[in-house]
Amino acid sequence: MNGLKRQWRPSAVGLAAVLILSSAAVAQNLPLTERIQQCGGCHGEDGNSQIEKVPSLAGQPEFFTINQLVLMREGVRRIEAMMPFVNDLKDEDILALAKHFASLPPKRSEEAVDPALVNRGAEIAEARRCASCHLPSLAGQEQMPRLAKQRIDYMIYALKSYLTDSRTGADTAMTAAILGASDADIAALAHYAASR
Amino acid sequence: MTHRFSAGRTTLLAGAVGSLILASSAVFAQQPPGLSPLDKSNPKASKQDGNLKPHATPSLATPAEKIPIDKLKLPAGFKAEIWSHGHPGGRTMVMGPKGTVFMGSRIIGRVYAITDKNGKREVKIIAQGLTQPNGLAIGKDGALYVLAINRVLRYDNIEDKLDNPGDPVELTKEFNLPPEIHHNWKYADFGPDGKLYIQVGANCNICEINPGVHGQIRRYNADGSGMEIVARGVRNTVGFDWHPVTKELWFTDNGRDWAGDAGPEDELNRVAKGQEGANYGFPYCHANGIPDPDVKRPSPCAGVVMPAALTGPHSAGMGIKFYTGEMFPKAYQNVAFIARRGSWNKADKYGYDVVLARTSDGKAKIEPFLTGLLDQKKNEFYGRPTYLLQMKDGSMLVSDEQNGAIYRISYSGKK
Questions:
Q1: Are B133 and B112 in contact (CB under 8 A)?
Q2: Which CATH number among 1.20.272.10, 3.40.50.150, 3.30.1220.10, 1.10.760.10 corresponds to the domain A115-195?
Q3: What is the pLDDT of residues B337-383, one digit of tens each?
Q4: Fewest beta carbons less than 10 Å away: which of A72, A148, B122, B162?
Q5: Interface confidence: ipTM more than 0.85
Q6: Is there a contact between A164 and B108 if contact means CB atoms under 8 Å apart?
Q7: Phi–psi pair at B152, nearest 5 degrees
Q8: Domain coordinates in residue numbering, chain B
Q9: Structural contact between residues A77 and A64, judged by C-beta atoms closer than 8 angstroms
């Protein structure tokens, strides 16, 4: 259940990418298209993830993706699965990747959205003012990620990580926003956000 | 220029696993029954724009040609220049005995070392991957103390090995600081008494904190022993300094959010001699005696030390330095410079400047000093001054976190 042992089942492309990387040491100056393919192995070819607990990147604000990739490269946000893919990223790569993913249209995953949870989530989101940062559409802005159409299982996992201070490099604004939420609240918020 | 910080990375990961297992039970562990860190604010009542949000801090540095040096305005005779750049997120500044300027940061997790080589600045990263290492202090023998939210580290003889700092001495256990993240990026400095002063912020915007743990300034012996509480009821101070003559502690304190665009205003406070441990009001009493609208109790301001000065609504007063150099005119001697990072919880932006505090008899008068980073008409800002450092020649450095730059303020006018 921790960040290291989480299961993700890389698709064929992802697996290939992982293998290539581990043999050819860490990529040197990979062209952007190849990088994007690597990312797609886990995050979905069109930036919409089909893998449990792997976030979609399509439609994320550029600033957010830049920020997170820099933090991962720094070892501040530590995601073991991603380390080989971010270690050698140059600033230019990061800027280009962020721009690419921002331009892709977000699509909802195949997870079932529970309407009762959506309603309850909307109330909690209102009370906790999620929209003040993530925008009323939950499309995100600047350092605040898009939540609309994001994977439900990933958001539940992410919100719990804030709650338990286990997302390294987390923005304290978000830690404060979720403080005291119950598991049921978190599930409702995730269903609501995904439905937007 | 990158030096990877490897010390304790494995222990950190192990720590993350451990905290997950403890999970939610640990979250409120510091909170006695009846006290909750949940935010009690009510933006509907405060009639503020509900869509105000914290401004983003870029994690990549602003290119040199885009640094807003031409915007800076100063009193006649003063001049600003770019002293260094290329250190994104750099905030706090301290100087080692051999002249190295060290810089702490928040989210980006780095500690920078900036050296002067033939009039050119060289920027190195001496530590990275830390959780908000904002607290820096230079101890006896030039050791660098780095305080992250969850760790206290000491780098001995650091200036002799900037290229290869090696593993620091871990003092985390000795200091035993509370683990809560909110408002707990540290500010720290050694006082004239040789003790290490450390802030422990309120772990919320507005809530009933545990006064035994949060909302304090503490002091410790350099080895982490002998903790004493110097000030209580302090919401979030991220800067303090001692008056050069009276040796009294002065600190900035950031007021709560979501109680109106007009405040309660931020504060400049003094700990008068013999008043160590006094109460500065949070969460019940703010600014010049304003009762909190959301966390109430009878006589909220009874026994609360009132601020020496108000420093503006949501202005985010950060670093404070009393000027003791020879370069600036006499009128600046022992005057405090305060960097105000600028507001977010306010429709019309405010701050983004450096002000002066002229102190006397425990009170202070605030005056503008460095302006120009806020365009009031457009309601836009170009930079965020965070901390100050007086150089040996009497010039003053100002860090701009937004642009990853340091400005040097010098004086060449009449004296």
A1: no
A2: 1.10.760.10
A3: 999 999 999 999 999 999 999 999 999 999 999 999 999 999 999 99
A4: B122
A5: no
A6: no
A7: -125, 125
A8: 9-41+58-411
A9: no
Record: contact A168-B131, CB cut-off 8 A: yes
Residue span(s) of chain A under CATH 1.10.760.10 come to: 12-102, 115-195
Question: What are the CB-based long-range contacts (under 8 Å, 24+) for B290-295?
Answer: B290/B263, B290/B264, B292/B206, B292/B256, B292/B259, B293/B42, B293/B45, B293/B46, B293/B259, B294/B40, B294/B41, B294/B42, B294/B45, B294/B206, B294/B259, B295/B40, B295/B206, B295/B207, B295/B208
| B249 interface with A at CB cutoff 8 Å | no
pTM, two decimals, is 0.89
Average pLDDT, chain A: 87
Coil, strand, or helix at residue B18? helix
- The pLDDT-based confidence of B1 (bands split at 50, 70, 90) is very low
Q: Which residues of B touch A144 (CB under 8 A)?
A: 53
| Interface contact flag, B23 A133, Cβ < 8 Å | no
Alpha carbons A105 and B229: distance in angstroms, whole number: 54
Q: Is A20 on the interface with B (CB under 8 A)?
A: no
Judge whether B66 is closer than 8 Å to chain A, CB to CB.
no
Measured in Å, how far apart are chain A's first and last C-alpha atoms? 27
Tell me yes or no: is domain B9-41+58-411 CATH 2.60.40.10. no
pLDDT digits (tens, 9 = 90+) for B261-288: 998 999 999 999 999 999 999 999 999 9
**H-run or E-run covering B158:** none
Residue with tokens 């607990």: A53
- HEC profile for chain A? CCCCCCCCCCCHHHHHHHHHHHHCCCCCCCCHHHHHHHHHHHHCCCCCCCCCCCCCCCCCCHHHHHHHHHHHHHCCCCCHHHHHHHCCCCHHHHHHHHHHHHHCCCCCCCCCCCHHHHHHHHHHHHHHCHHHHHCCCCCCECCECCCCCCCHHHHHHHHHHHHCCCCCCCCHHHHHHHCCCCHHHHHHHHHHHHHC
CATH 3.40.50.150 for domain A12-102, yes or no, is no
| Contact assignment for A179 to B39 by CB distance below 8 Å | yes
Could you read off the pLDDT of B20-67 as tens digits, one per residue?
A: 223 333 334 445 555 677 788 887 788 888 788 999 999 999 999 999
| pLDDT > 80? residue A17 | no
> What dihedral angle (degrees, nearest 10) is formed by the CA atoms of B102, B107, B110, B112?
-30
Give the closest residue to B390 by CA, choosing from B334, B317, B351, B330: B334
Bridge partners of A46, per DSSP, are: none
